[in-house]
Amino acid sequence: MPIYTYRCDSCGHAKDVLQKMSDSPLTTCPACAKETFTKQVTAAGFQLKGSGWYQTDFRGGSGTSSASTDAGSSSAPSSGATDA
Known about the structure:
25% of the residues lie in helices and 17% in strands. By secondary structure, it is of the alpha+beta class. It has a 3-stranded antiparallel sheet with strand order 2-1-3, with no helix packed on it. A hairpin with a 5-residue loop joins strand 1 (3-8) and strand 2. Mean pLDDT is 74; it is low at 65-69 and 71-76.
């Protein structure tokens, strides 16, 4: 669900509200109870829930370089074990 920012034109009260896109916009200010509460134009807001992709992906560049580093380190011990 998107997060919308509202601001009262009368008292200046601002609030972020989590709403469905199909919900009607709020008009009554919770601080002064006037009908001057309007939705502001802001950057897109959203919530990421859980331990999803955003914690691990795109963190330090491309994933191929870290994969090749892991592959190189795993082959080194096996060659050392052969020599012993």
